[in-house]
Amino acid sequence: MENTGKLAGYTLFVTGGSRGIGKSIALKAARDGANIVIAAKTAEPHPKLPGTIYTAAKEIEDVGGKCLPCIVDVRDEKAVQAAVDEAVRTFGGIDILVNNASAISLTGTLATTMKKYDLMNNVNTRGTFLCSRACLPHLLKSKQRSRQAHILNISPPISSITPKWFKSFPAYSIAKYGMSLCVLGMAAEFEEQGIAVNALWPRTTVATAATEMLGGSSSAAHSRKTDIMADAAYAIFLKGISCSGNFLIDDEVLAKEGITDLDQYACVPGNQLSLDIFVNNNGSFAPQEKTSKKHNASRDQPSRNGNPEVSAIFNEMRKALSASVVAQIGGVVKYTLSASGKSESWTVDLKNGSGSIRQEDGKADCTLKMSPNTFVAMFKGEMDPTDAFMSGKIKIDGDMGLVMKLEKLTQNIPKSKL
């Protein structure tokens, strides 16, 4: 989407703007000549995540914007208020707030500690409410200056609320939909004052550091670039109060702007895309599971001696075991494969010695539950692991970080031998 220059002189307060979607939205507005306040925690380089508030500020200034980088933890009321006050002193006001900061842990109830629960709800829901509350007095003044005052939350559509999401990761779902409930309430509360409040969510996974941590290094190949969210946000900002109280999906926003060539946003044009979480399958972007030319009914019928295809995969995994792999992973992962009332468990010990794999229901740091069909299709490359997890075909209990590390082992398995 082409820049119009209409946000020149506007001031955007962007939480979590040092990387990913937040930074892309900031850069898009900066190309118009907007002032950007980056409110994020990363002041020093992170060992695993790229970018700081200062590197983001330089990028913003390099494309024509002005930037005020602020060290802000959105859980800290004093830090938020101090950043808002500094923004007003520096730029004279705030016109647009982007509530992008988020914490995530895709864990079930028993695997979610109260520390994780509090983190997600304090960053996502409470942080969104706090930043909105702090910025609103200035957004009201912005509207009095005839500007398009706006709050945009990066949160899912209310219409997608189903047990599907809450049963898989209830704490995170509560926290993200809490951000959406802020939209529902504030859009109505401030409608008469002319403040637009909306939610924006991606239809597919978007290639960010967080997505890679959750879906592995291969997830980007089935994702879109952050540019699609930036372009959609930009289009929303230009509409003002005529667009408020909406729960929008990125590609639907762009379609209304006449942008139908979405391949430009794909990390790998032509690749099948993975639906994001909180997006219910409406058929248009349904991840398609590839099927083998010959259907093997034994995939869905684990026998007492183990499914032959499952056994073959674990045999290939054994060949990839080594002391160096154990040193890199350092954990025990259990696969529980169930179908038709029968189940079998395989324990992969990547914590001790040179590693071992046994068909047993042993103790583990992380358990992956799925059907034999899903397991075989995933290891044969017929099903994307991220799609399988997002669609509920895989359930993970315990340390999800181990699953990401396990990719190092599974990548060494030659698909031609499965």
Automatic annotation (TrEMBL):
Localization per record: Mitochondrion; Peroxisome
Location (main, coarse): mitochondrion
Taxonomic source organism: Clavelina lepadiformis (Light-bulb sea squirt)
Keyword Mitochondrion: yes
Record lineage: Eukaryota, Metazoa, Chordata, Tunicata, Ascidiacea
UniProt-listed SUPFAM superfamilies: NAD(P)-binding Rossmann-fold domains (SSF51735), SCP-like (SSF55718)
Domain SCP2: 319-410
Sequence similarity: Belongs to the short-chain dehydrogenases/reductases (SDR) family.
One family name in Pfam for this protein: adh_short
InterPro entries with a match to the protein in the record: HSDL2, NAD(P)-bd_dom_sf, SCP2_sterol-bd_dom, SCP2_sterol-bd_dom_sf, SDR_fam
Segments of this protein annotated with the region Disordered: 286-309
Keyword annotations: Mitochondrion, NADP, Oxidoreductase, Peroxisome
Protein name as annotated: Hydroxysteroid dehydrogenase-like protein 2
